[in-house]
């Protein structure tokens, strides 16, 4: 009975965390905390949920010291060290936002170390489907915002979007995020899940359960694709294209599934994505947000980034190893508030140590995703779990490819959802290993 209750508590905790991550509102001032009122209440909810979830599992504690856990510990340690270094060496007063950066990374670390070893694969699969359902619901909200339906654009939108993006809501909806670029990055995960499940349901070996839900998976894929395109986010478009192309290439090169299935995927998917990409480039001049993709080296936004980087690099060079911590006070000397490069942002805040540790973390997660994606046994026994591996692989590759020129990950909420999927993939791989061991005995 006690084991059953712990199992139910774990399931409830996972589903609650998924729901809050996707649909939790952004509580804007005056509901902020901290001496300067710089941490919103919604930002605190995610680490509180994770810490509470972890504490509830202490009686059945099983720490996982995987390579991902080790790298998360290293990332958290370097962030903590950079905060301490900036306070001591640069005499910056500690701020709530800096301490919070350490807290959120500590919660990420504990989540993977404590929760990943105990999540049942059945819970992981249900959690993946819950992500898909809740994500499609956000697209419905985004469509209603585009149509300027009052309840969506005037009642619900202010709970999430910033004031600046509220003014452009009908052209670039934000759904349950603060801006359209973050929404497109978020949708890349469920889009890749639905894309892979649509492919899996077309296999001759697909189970009756999967085939009965093929229409839902395809509809989810169409909805999430529409959601990404509706944001007019070049980052979101490129993450999905690069991620999907990497997934297709891995399927082709590693021999996942039958030959006929792979040929069908390559023929249909490659042609579809190529046609879509060429179409957007061809009509780029007619859609302002995508027009710069046709000639990126002459793009105004890219030139603005180059100008910012030129001003930031001398500051980085003064503290290249450990950085300046999460604080942006050092940027006050130049007219730059946002570093539009994930690589340079990590270098500025956490130094080369931070860049190397985060890059190592993402590469290890990418390898984990590819191990799932290329495992035909997982595809046969757990296509839903396999889809999470596809999403992790594609999103990681797309994000790393854009990391030098885009501030990725741009949102803690998106990165939390990403790590939830990583935990689900770990659970699926663990179950596959158990099944393989039992089959061999």
List keywords for this structure.
single chain; 441 residues; mainly alpha; two-stranded antiparallel ribbon; 18 helices; 2 strands; globular
Structure description:
By secondary structure, this protein is mainly alpha-helical. It has one domain (2-434). Helix content is 72%, strand content 1%. The protein contains 18 helices and 2 strands. It has a two-stranded antiparallel sheet. Helix 5 packs antiparallel against helix 18.
Mean pLDDT across residues: 81
How large is the count of helical segments? Answer: 18
N to C succession of SSEs = HEEHHHHHHHHHHHHHHHHH
The largest pleated sheet is described as: 2 strands, antiparallel
Please give the domain count.
1
Distance between the termini: 29 Å
Q: Strand tally, please?
A: 2
Strand content: under 5%
Shape: globular
* Structural Rg: 22 Å
Helix content: over 70%
- Class by SSE composition: mainly alpha
Low-confidence stretches: none
Strand order of the largest sheet: 1-2
Provide a quick synopsis of the model.
The protein has 441 residues and is mostly helical. Helices cover 72% and strands 1% of the residues.
Topology of this structure?
Elements lengths: L1 H22 L8 E2 L5 E2 H16 L10 H23 L6 H20 L5 H26 L3 H7 L6 H4 L13 H22 L6 H5 L1 H17 L3 H21 L4 H24 L5 H4 L8 H19 L23 H32 L2 H6 L1 H20 L9 H29 L1
Antiparallel strand pairs: 1-2
Helix pairs in contact: 1-2, 1-5, 2-4, 3-4, 3-15, 4-18, 5-6, 5-8, 5-10, 5-18, 8-10, 8-11, 8-17, 8-18, 11-12, 11-17, 14-15, 15-17, 15-18, 17-18
């Amino acid at each position: 009975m006690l084991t059953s209750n712990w199992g139910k508590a774990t399931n409830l905790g996972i589903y609650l965390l998924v729901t809050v991550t996707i649909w939790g509102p952004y509580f804007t001032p005056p509901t902020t905390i901290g001496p300067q009122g710089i941490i919103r209440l919604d930002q605190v909810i995610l680490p509180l949920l994770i810490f509470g979830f972890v504490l509830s599992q202490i009686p059945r504690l099983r720490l996982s010291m995987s390579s991902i856990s080790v790298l998360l510990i290293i990332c958290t340690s370097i962030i903590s060290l950079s905060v301490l270094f900036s306070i001591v060496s640069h005499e910056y007063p500690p701020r709530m936002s800096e301490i919070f950066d350490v807290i959120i990374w500590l919660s990420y670390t504990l989540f993977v170390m404590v929760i990943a070893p105990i999540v049942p694969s059945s819970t992981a699969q249900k959690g993946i489907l819950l992500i898909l359902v809740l994500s499609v619901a956000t697209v419905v909200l985004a469509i209603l915002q585009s149509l300027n339906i009052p309840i969506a654009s005037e009642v619900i939108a202010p709970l999430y979007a910033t004031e600046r993006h509220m003014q452009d809501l009908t052209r670039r909806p934000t759904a349950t995020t603060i801006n359209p670029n973050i929404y497109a990055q978020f949708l890349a995960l469920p889009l890749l899940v639905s894309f892979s499940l649509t492919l899996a349901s077309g296999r001759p070996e697909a189970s009756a359960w999967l085939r009965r839900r093929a229409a839902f998976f395809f509809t989810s894929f169409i909805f999430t694709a529409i959601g990404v395109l509706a944001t007019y986010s070049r980052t979101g478009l490129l993450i999905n294209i690069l991620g999907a192309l990497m997934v297709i290439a891995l399927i082709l090169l590693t021999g996942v599934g039958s030959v006929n299935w792979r040929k069908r995927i390559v023929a249909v998917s490659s042609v579809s994505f190529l046609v879509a990409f060429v179409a957007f480039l061809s009509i780029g001049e007619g859609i302002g947000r995508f027009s710069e993709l046709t000639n990126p080296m002459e793009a105004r936004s890219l030139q603005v980034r180059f100008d910012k980087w030129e001003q930031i690099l001398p500051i980085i060079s003064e503290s290249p190893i450990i950085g300046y911590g999460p604080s942006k006070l050092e940027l006050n000397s130049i007219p730059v508030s946002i570093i539009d490069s994930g690589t340079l942002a990590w270098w500025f805040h956490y130094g080369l140590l931070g860049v190397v540790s985060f890059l190592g973390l993402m590469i290890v997660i990418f390898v984990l995703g590819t191990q799932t994606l290329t495992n035909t046994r997982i595809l046969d026994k757990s296509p839903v779990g396999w889809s999470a591996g596809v999403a992790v692989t594609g999103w990681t590759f797309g994000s790393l490819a854009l990391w030098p020129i885009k501030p990725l990950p741009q949102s803690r909420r998106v990165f939390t959802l990403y790590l939830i999927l990583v935990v689900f993939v770990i659970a699926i791989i663990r179950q596959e290993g158990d099944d393989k061991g039992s089959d061999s005995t």
